Amino acid sequence: MTTISPxxxxxxxxxxxxxSLDELTELAQLLTTGEAPRAVVVVCPPATLxxxxxxxxxxxxxxxxxxxxxxxxxxxHTGDIxxxxxxxxxxxxxxxxxxxxxxxxxxxxxxxxxxxxxxIGAGLKPIICVGETEAQRDAGQAESIVAAQxxxxxPDAAGLHEVIVAYEPVWAIGTGRTPSNDDIAQxxxxxxxxxxxxxxxxxxxxxxxxxxxxxKPVNAREILAIDNVNGGxxxxxxxxxxxxxxxxxxx
Length: 251
Ligand code: 13P
What we know:
With 251 residues, the protein is of the alpha/beta class. The chain has helices at 21-33, 50-57, 83-88, 99-104, 109-121, 134-138, 142-153, 181-204, 220-224, 241-249; strands at residues 7-11, 40-44, 62-66, 93-96, 125-130, 164-167, 208-212, 231-234. 40% of the residues lie in helices and 15% in strands. Strand 2 (40-44), helix 2 (50-57) and strand 3 form a beta-alpha-beta unit. The structure holds 1,3-dihydroxyacetonephosphate. The site of 1,3-dihydroxyacetonephosphate has 14 residues, from strand 8.
């Protein structure tokens, strides 16, 4: 339905020591010796490995991303990392508003929007995460919750810059459960309609909408073939080169 080039991003979360770069080496080998990938490939390691992933991934086309960024460029914010620092380390993307950060750090839509703006300001492409909890889905509120998150988490600057939306139902993350294909199709169509509504057809139809939540080698082919699913945000299965490569190849 769309001609958007797909993107598969791996979110390593708080996993990965320097030896995990062996997986990156293996992934690079698979990507360069196998059939050319039909997707943009991004790896978002912990901040400690962003520079290494950016450097090591370059020759095989693997791009690096951060998992979060502060709203400010610099300052007295112990332990935080700014979008400029990620860019300086070679990142081209930054995940913002992941449900684990919304839950663990109480991040609000307003903060997520400010982070997305900061990422854009630093020249990064924000991957803005939205998604409902299981209770919200059971209450029939999934679409309205996600719609509200889209309104408040996506900055107006998305009209002029590249942003990526990731739909990650909270209850599907790390659980091995996924929505039905129909439910994914319905949610992605709803997100698409809202993007077109807000940013116009020309822009709204070019924004990638990724699916995330227990995306695995076994289900990648069918999920990635759903209309308006323009790629995936992969957690656990991105930690093993073979699994991640299988998902990339499913595009
Ligand atoms: P899993 O693929 O492990 O379910 O994680 C999804 C996710 O949260 C990616 O950001």
